[in-house]
Amino acid sequence: MTDFRVHVDISGGVGRLRWDEQVVDSDTLQRAVSLASDDAILAHDLRRLQVDLLASDRAARSAVHRCGFRLEGILRSAQETPSGELVDVLVYARLAVDPVYGAEGFSGVMNSVLPTKRVIGHAVFRNEAGEVLLTETVYKEDWELPGGVVERGETPRQGAEREVLEEIGLAVTFGQPALVDWMPPYLGWDDAVEYIFDGGVLPDDVAAALLPTDREIRALHWVPRGEFTRRVTALSARRLELVLDGYRGMTENGLPVT
């Protein structure tokens, strides 16, 4: 297969790899992509090298993985096959500054292609009457606990503390989570892992002074236990009941793991 060639189209410091459809073994494809990539980045001082692949092309995906290319995105149903099937196109890229070889290079590639999950941190606060604090957001009908999505580099505890401060202006320090719950896919969201912390009972003067401090929060509400099911999702209601009953541990879809 010595006539197999990988082409590089270059414009403004960015290169795009392409090759003609041709049956070659995986090792040949990997060597050709590696040589073309190293030469393009070094000889032409490229900052970025990109290649678009059909999601169904497992051999090509394996080859670019071994050459240090990281998955950056998915173009859904972007290309039609000769049989009329619509397939996803995967966008891979390798930057001149990316580690390519050794453990760090391998880990960087795997980090880009392996599944990831959202991590969420929420908190349960009660007032002296036993009511629970719920937030009413501007973008959905059901209410929820203060908190939100944990950012990259944050621990779940740090993320929950930051979100509580941003949403209701309350500076808190949490300890162990009350619940760690796996959430199934819902309303277009993928599955996620949620940490729920018990914020304890707030004094009446503190509870009464709380106001929304984030533009996504329309209002704050102190809700009696018997009204949870009218205000939150069934999943949230299950978890709230568990926390208030003193359950501590792991749950899946709001149900204790036995």
Automatic annotation (TrEMBL):
Necessary cofactors: Mg(2+)
Residues annotated as domain Nudix hydrolase: 115-245
InterPro entries named in the record: Acyl_CoA_acyltransferase (IPR016181), Nudix_hydrolase (IPR020476), NUDIX_hydrolase-like_dom_sf (IPR015797), NUDIX_hydrolase_CS (IPR020084), NUDIX_hydrolase_dom (IPR000086)
GO MF assignments: hydrolase activity
One Pfam entry name: NUDIX
PANTHER family: GDP-MANNOSE MANNOSYL HYDROLASE
Name of the protein in its database record: NUDIX hydrolase
Biological source species: Tessaracoccus rhinocerotis
